[in-house]
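Reopening: Deaminase still failing for me.
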Amino acid sequence: MGQLIYSMITSLDGYAEAAEGDLGAGAEDEEVHTFIGDLFRPVGTYLYGRRMYETMVYWETAHTEPDLPPHILQYARDWQAAEKVVYSTTLQSVSSARTRIEPTFDPEAVRRLKAESEHDLTVDGPNLAAQAIAAGLVDEYRLFITTSVVGGGKRFFPDGVRLDLELVEQRAFGNGLLYARYRAR
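Support: Ran it again with your exact input. Result attached.
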């Protein structure tokens, strides 16, 4: 049975998307990106909303760019090997292999997908993750916390939910980014 993981870069004040600008420095650091690649190599399925998919589909062709470092090429290969499910009512087609579109997020279908999976799954993007959290589907939360306070945007955790989590791993990187992994109790 696969675990469902929600992981994103988040600002120090808890926003996964800033209202204005970006979330600050972090994942572009080689040490951090290598760690993220190693962490998500075992993932078998990515669950995306349209906007997150449109951001991540870069990895389908990243390997064709010249002079990429090995850790970037490895991440691209790992992403390409995984299944992708995109939840969207507006997206008509996808431009990556191993990808399908579903019109709506169906918690029961995701429960079955988890039960049948030999590998972990991720839910990516705060809007889609909010639906998975509300349905009680998320097993782990992996936060990459920047040193920036952005003052507004889309929160990592949705409003109106209570979660009691257990800290199971943490790490500080040289660039100030913090990694915290929590398991649902």
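The mean pLDDT is 95. If you still see a failure, please send the error message rather than a screenshot.
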